[in-house]
Specification:
Elements: E1 7-13, H1 17-28, E2 33-36, E3 53-55, H2 71-82, H3 88-107, E4 126-128, H4 132-147, E5 150-152, E6 156-163, E7 166-174, E8 177-188, H5 197-204, E9 212-213, H6 222-229, E10 234-235, E11 241-247, E12 268-270, H7 285-288, H8 292-297, E13 304-309, E14 324-326, H9 329-336, H10 340-353, E15 354-355, E16 368-369, E17 388-400, E18 403-404, E19 411-413, E20 419-425, H11 443-468
Parallel strand pairs: 1-2, 1-8, 2-5, 8-20, 9-17
Antiparallel strand pairs: 3-4, 6-7, 7-8, 10-18, 11-17, 12-13, 13-17, 14-17, 15-16, 19-20
Helix pairs in contact: 1-4, 1-11, 2-3, 3-11, 9-10
Cofactor: FAD
Domain FAD-dependent oxidoreductase 2 FAD-binding: 9-436
Keywords: FAD, Flavoprotein, Oxidoreductase
């Protein structure tokens, strides 16, 4: 129970991957650490609960990775998905540091499984957590607790006392009371604002009402808003985010990975007018799946439909919900509430444009369309074998990119350009430094792990140096 009587070296707001990496790093450096997790214990960990893997650079194949993934290739992939909208110095530093994370995070109790193949195409680049994100998270919590990190749940940071560029204390709401917590340093690792629909509307307008939130309902951006209001420099575009196409039947919040749909490349995607609107085969899925949330958000009613036929049914990870099924395209359209004539016309036009090739769902194959706008440049096969299937999809927001500016030490930067005296940030709350737009699978966990470890290390170092030189405090 919090009572405000203890002074901490490091106060961390948040309870996910970034927060735990920061807590462990700081504690191993000798700091007294308090983690204030705004969610109840069962829902602890924010979006980390729903993750599966992490992208790290490595020089050679391992027991859990099928081949090398160089720092330069990682950076090239990042440039491709962000269109160059990244802080190159920070990104390169993160990628270099990521090479150590595969060993460091295992030392904290996290276990990886053998590499995966199939449609994910990530066996060489991404390490998959044995048991998924919740198992990974539980391992970090066990390690943090065994080291003596203090953790409190249902503990939302509702106010911050910041004088100039220096953090003094935080007000934490816990057990029906507001408690003032003093700490020598503060680390913000409390996620973005994707669960705050009103804030999303500030950037997106009323269409945000039709968005589904893939992750935790507790990421409302409370700490982020306070930091910006108290003089920390913000970075990023409020409309940029990790947004994927998820099953439209998913719950408003916390649907997680099982509502994501990976079948776009195997069929066509149409809007509610039964018209295609983008190349479904532009690139391998891990480099393109995160563009589809924004694409669907731009369609009428923020809804679309993935249409495919029987040969593709077992080529991808299915949704929690079964696909809509019919014996004809017209019947499928009726079940979806679309114009049968319009969908039949779209499918017929697509089929006529498909050119023969050698289908290979693991590579950029030569199955394409010709004379069709928009084209489908890979994995184009005629949709002609009954039964026919469809999934309705809506934009699924994972996390937002508007955040706080940090430097190489994960230290926040104030609006006037000064480094904060004793405030750090890690994870989604500062992801916009690396992700100006776009996404590559697993990079969110990389950002959280790398900057979390740095933030904890640097916060502990600051406390140690201040204790040896009191005038620095």
């Amino acid at each position: 129970m919090l009572d405000g009587s203890t002074d901490y070296d490091v106060l961390i707001a948040g309870g996910g991957n970034a927060a735990l990496c920061a807590a462990i790093s700081a504690r191993r450096a000798g700091a007294r650490v308090l983690v204030a997790e705004g969610a109840p214990r069962f829902y602890r960990g924010g979006n980390t609960r729903h993750t599966r893997n992490m992208r790290c650079a490595h020089d050679a194949a391992t027991e859990t990775l099928s081949g090398p993934y160089s720092e330069e290739e990682f950076f090239d992939d990042l440039l491709r998905v962000t269109g160059g909208r990244t802080d190159e110095a920070l990104a390169r530093m993160m990628i270099a540091e990521s090479k150590e994370m595969l060993t460091w995070i295992v030392e904290q109790g996290v276990r990886f499984q053998p590499s995966l193949g199939g449609t994910l195409s990530l066996g060489r680049t991404n390490s998959f957590f044995l048991g998924g994100g919740r198992a990974m998270l539980n391992a970090l919590y066990r390690t943090a607790e065994s080291l003596g990190v203090e953790i409190v749940y249902d503990a939302e940071v509702v106010d911050l006392a910041i004088e100039g560029a220096r953090f003094r204390s935080a007000t934490v709401r816990h057990a029906g009371k507001d408690v003032s917590i003093r700490a020598k340093t503060f680390i913000a690792a409390s996620g973005g604002f994707e669960a705050n629909i009103d804030w999303l509307k500030e950037g997106w307008g009323e269409i945000a009402e039709n968005f589904l939130i893939r992750g935790t309902p507790y990421n409302r951006g409370t700490v982020l808003r306070m930091l910006i209001d108290r003089g920390v420099m913000q970075i990023g575009d409020p409309t940029q985010c990790h947004a994927v196409a998820i099953d439209a039947r998913a719950p408003k919040f916390d649907g997680g990975i099982i509502t994501r749909l990976d079948c776009v490349v195997f069929g066509i995607v149409v809007n509610r007018h039964a018209k295609r609107f983008y190349d479904e085969g532009e690139d391998v899925w891990p480099k393109r799946y995160a563009i589809w949330g924004r694409l669907v958000a731009a369609q009428p009613g923020q809804i679309a439909y993935i249409v495919f036929d029987a040969p593709s049914l077992e080529l991808f990870m299915p949704s929690l919900f079964p696909p809509v099924e019919a014996e004809t395209i017209g019947e499928l359209a009726e079940k979806l509430g679309l114009s049968p004539a319009a969908l039949e016309r779209t499918v017929a036009g697509f089929n006529a444009a498909v050119r023969p090739g050698t289908f290979d769902h693991t590579a950029l194959d030569d199955c394409r369309t010709e004379g069709l706008e928009p084209a489908k440049t890979h994995w184009a096969r005629r949709i002609e074998t009954a039964p026919f299937y469809a999934y309705p999809v809506r934009p699924g927001i994972t996390f937002t990119y508007l955040g706080v500016k940090v430097d190489r030490a994960a230290r926040m930067v104030m609006a006037d350009g000064r480094p904060a005296a004793n405030m750090f940030a890690a994870g989604e709350i500062m992801a916009g430094n690396v992700l100006g737009q776009g996404y590559a699978a697993g990079i969110g966990m990389t950002i959280g792990s790398v900057f979390g470890r740095i933030a904890g290390r640097e916060a502990a170092r600051l406390v140690s140096s201040a204790s040896q030189s009191p005038e620095a405090a």
